[in-house]
Amino acid sequence: MTPGHDDKRQWSDERDPSDPDAADQFAAHVLPTKGEPTRVVLDGRCPGCHGVMTSVHTARGPLTQAEASERIPPAKREGATPETHSYRVIATRCGCGYEHLEAPENELGCGAPIALAVRWPKGKPDDVKLFTVTASAFERREERALQETLAAQLSHVRNAAESWRTGLGGFLAVLAVVFFVEGATSFDDVASRWHWPLAVLLLASAASALYGAYRAIRAAYGTPADEYVPGRGLVWQALRNQLPATTPRHIHDYDSVGAWQDALAGQSVTDLRHAKVATVLAAMCFAAAAAVTWLAPDPGGSERLVIEARTGSVCGKVVTERGDVLVVDGSREVALRDVVSVKPVPTCPSQ
Questions:
Q1: Residue 122: its pLDDT value, please?
Q2: pLDDT tens digits for range 10-25
């Protein structure tokens, strides 16, 4: 039992007028102190049961900056405005972790409501001030839901990234088929002047898909420690510098594991956004390549030849002479002595 903790206090979510001012019971820490703050940590004692508690919250809450600033009594605003300071109203309740009489099932703490306004100058998150304010039961429920979201944000982003990674894997499989199975046929079906545009579009599609897959994998699994960049030379150092600033070796830059996890979630969101853009670009290039194969002119033009012979008629696109026979499309043969006439047509009669 924590010294000074009132374990006899009955659970209640109503403030007791005799409870001390909540702002005097807590210290607030805005983390990280470098860069954009993502978390507000309250350390202190519950004003109801006096149990030691720590409460972690997002740096941004449901209220706008202007709304949050207006919760502070005018006499205590000290000229601060939303243009010069950041604000966060936190509506929570006792988190001492002990069971109290008459507490709801699976509920720890005495239930005492805690409503604090946190203020810090922009760019100086280490200069934090607390003010006791009022908050409704609805705001306390909203705060709890926000805390649950905070705990699950990284897993949610990574689950979404895994789905994109799977989709991109399937798309890369389709591209592999186009390149290595149907590639030669696709190029043979278009005029030679279209070979380079078709190759560029297919390569751009593959490169975009590979990049998107890499960013989706990084979004899903994060960036490991620097054991994957083991060297100490200039090249290895340059590679190491390309890794995001969320690898484990940077954890001390965030002042807490929670703030580092927020940065991991933010990096995963950025990676997932890149993966989505790369996927769209890959699909567009692939569609353009398909349009080239469909719409570009044939190697020998669009005309076909109908060869009328005594043995019947043959129609084809490519006709070559081999000895005393004509070879149509590389497979069908007509003896020259049997040929009656040859005439070009837009399409073969059988088509």
A1: 92
A2: 999 888 888 889 999 9
This prediction has a pTM of 0.63
As given in the structure block, the two tokens for residue 185 are 């046929």
State the Cα–Cα distance between residues 87 and 68, nearest whole angstrom.
6
Q: What is the DSSP code string of 190-234?
A: S-GGGHHHHHHHHHHHHHHHHHHHHHHHHHHH----GGGS---SH
**Strand locations in the chain (E):** 26-31, 39-45, 52-58, 85-93, 113-121, 129-132, 304-309, 312-316, 319-322, 325-328, 332-335, 339-345
Using the predicted structure, report yes or no on whether residue 155 has a pLDDT greater than 70: yes
Strand order in the sheet with 52-58: 26-31, 39-45, 52-58
- How many angstroms separate the CA atoms of 242 and 311, rounded? 72
Angle (nearest 5°) at CA 12 between 7 and 18: 80
Burial of 40 (0-12, 13-18, 19+ CB in 10 A): buried
Cβ atoms 316, 249 nearer than 8 A: no
Place of tokens 């607390």: 130
Percent of the chain at pLDDT above 70?
Answer: 87
Q: Residue 202, Cβ neighbours under 10 Å: how many?
A: 23
pLDDT digits (tens, 9 = 90+) for 318-338: 778 888 888 887 778 888 888
Query: CB–CB of 212/175 below 8 Å?
Result: no
- Confidence (pLDDT) at 92: 93
Q: H/E element holding 263?
A: helix 257-295
**Two structure tokens written together for 316:** 């084809």
